[in-house]
Amino acid sequence: MHVRPEDLEARARSAVLDFGGPLTPAELRRLAGDAGVIPIVLNGAGQPLDVGRRTRTIPDGLRRAVAARDGGCAFPGCDRRVSWCDCHHIRPWQDGGPTTLDNLVMLCKRHHRLVHHSGWTVRLPDGLPEFLPPRWIDPDQNPRRKPPPHLIA
């Protein structure tokens, strides 16, 4: 069911189910009372930028936002394009990490496996991806990053 919070609070006259069927106000209130709410934040073009905690999968609009920020695999030294990449949850979804722009980074398959299995840490201190190597690679764990895609010549 798709309904705006303000419509639900204002006792909306109708709502629309995913399959297109209309609901009466009474049906809407009854279903909403029993439903799990999945908040979805949309940008001005109606593309999802945040889908809360109910889903681990990344909607197309959110994937495009991550791709625009990272420009492909964000791992330093990697030149894999977006089409070769996955979105990686920085704080794992199963550990409470949200499916949001500030918790996702674009990684190619090789670097996705590396981050999961070799002790690399990813963070976004200023909204851009930064990678901390494991201590066995760099005892000081100096952050590493690629330049933002718009600065690469």
From TrEMBL:
List, alphabetically, the InterPro entries matched.
DUF222 (IPR003870), HNH (IPR002711), HNH_nuc (IPR003615)
Give the superkingdom in one word. Answer: Bacteria
GO MF annotations for this entry?
Answer: endonuclease activity; nucleic acid binding; zinc ion binding
Q: Which residues does the UniProt record annotate as the domain HNH nuclease?
A: 61-113
Instruction: Give me the stretches of Basic residues compositional bias.
Output: 144-153
Q: Note the Gene3D superfamilies from the entry.
A: 1.10.30.50
Region labeled Disordered — which residues? Answer: 133-153
Similarity comment text for this entry: Belongs to the Rv1128c/1148c/1588c/1702c/1945/3466 family.
- The entry's protein name is HNH nuclease domain-containing protein
Native source species? Pseudonocardia asaccharolytica DSM 44247 = NBRC 16224
